[in-house]
Design goal:
homodimer; 254 residues; alpha+beta; ten-stranded mixed β-sheet; globular
Chain lengths: 254, 254
């Protein structure tokens, strides 16, 4: 039987989602918890990898196993054996043809940054400190250039290998708030898929423009001339959260 | 010369504010940073102790020293030697009769809780998980009983020693929001001072009432009959943040 999980994690201390030799990963901790809970081994496949230090509010993953426990109770069984940084929010039976990676239609990431003269330890865990200020109207203006289908090769980390670097961004929504006397921004980016480091580099480019270090002309060129030198810096992983993955079906009833 | 600091800290890994033998504390880390930055030892006095695991957005403290650095730059000098969990947000010269503890007129604490069926690691660091739900109208209603001058002896941890257990609460403001699909509440409590564990026990009582475990009659009695058995449980420290300390003067210009 195929099952699907919705997983939330504080990525600070993990080497990302995918199992690797040199670091503890979220996939590893989940598969270990599964073995402890159900005395069997599974391979858990996510909607996509998240990098070291990146968080997830709603990572979706699937596995195949024979379990007698009611599907909605799998979450609680796994949570008994997971470290406090990982929580399974929901579990359900999945359609047999469901694949958390290949069936994904849209993903939404959020990049969080805050603007203040000095660092704030109450914000640093899930948000990146930026010195100075950023004009929210400028951020919203420049974000519109990214909407639609583009070749995002300039926004991809050089070491990645993919078939195509063309991706579609459906929306970029920017929210602003003030807490503890400093400005926070949330940059929600929704698309059909993302290249390695793409959201973090888009965030760096938007902020670079809003702070006057990058021109509008430069941003426009970065989407046509495919030149990595035109884009902003790749922002640190702690500010990035995988918010949501959509499949066009209701996976978790209620 | 007397100086004042505004300090922010993520209290998760500290044994509270005050120097002690068995744990690393915020005061210790600040005094160590001071010695590294200025090659002299000082005693740093805070507005009040915060307990192990409690956070501060705006702890205020003072010290006396002879420094040649411009007062507003002391913050940056200390931040060079502080761990990432502590940040000095501002520094200034203080009036010679200023005392961070004795001059304090009002303090505001915030208790953060979230309501969901399962734990959320993106919220746990600064907010306490409560199963089930809470009616915000009921919370606001019961909070009004605490406003004014009362003997809060029933809300004090038994081991504390104080001259008087009478305190004045000026306001309790409750904010509600939804993030990651679950409800968050912020309970801001402003008063002229607080007994040991008082805010955490008030929070537990408000939530106990909103969840139907404690009656209005019981809460009323807890403020007149001084019986600790009438009050709710003391909530965990991770949800508590010292927000602000007011002195009736502008300590940090701008």
């Amino acid at each position: 039987m195929k099952y699907v999980l919705k997983v939330c994690y504080d990525g600070t201390s993990f080497g990302g989602w995918q199992i690797q030799n040199n670091a503890v990963t979220v996939q590893q901790r989940l598969e270990e918890a599964f073995e402890k809970a159900f005395s069997q081994q599974v391979n858990i496949t996510a909607s996509g990898r998240t990098d070291a230090g990146v968080h997830a509010a709603g990572q979706v993953c699937h596995f195949t196993a024979d379990l007698t426990i009611p599907p909605e109770k799998i979450a609680d069984a796994l949570n008994c054996f997971l470290p406090k940084e990982i929580s399974v929010l929901a579990s359900a039976k999945a359609p047999e043809n469901f694949d958390a990676n290949r069936s994904a239609k849209r993903k939404t990431y959020c990049y969080n940054a805050y603007f203040s003269p000095r660092k704030n330890p109450l914000k640093d865990r899930f948000s990146t400190w930026v010195k100075g200020d950023a004009d929210i109207q400028k951020l919203r203006h420049i974000a519109t250039l990214f909407i639609g289908e583009h070749d995002f090769i300039a926004y991809m980390a050089s070491r990645s290998q993919v078939k195509t670097t063309v991706r579609t961004i459906y929306s970029i929504d920017i929210e602003e708030s003030i807490t503890y006397g400093s400005k926070n921004i949330k940059i929600f980016v929704c698309g059909n898929g993302f290249l390695y480091n793409m959201v973090r580099t888009i965030a760096g480019t938007l902020i670079g423009y809003a702070q006057g270090r990058i021109s509008e002309e430069q941003v426009k060129k970065s989407l046509t001339e495919k030149n990595r030198n035109l884009v902003g810096k790749t922002m640190p992983p702690n500010g990035l959260t995988l918010e949501d993955v959509e499949y066009g079906i209701n996976l978790f009833n209620g």
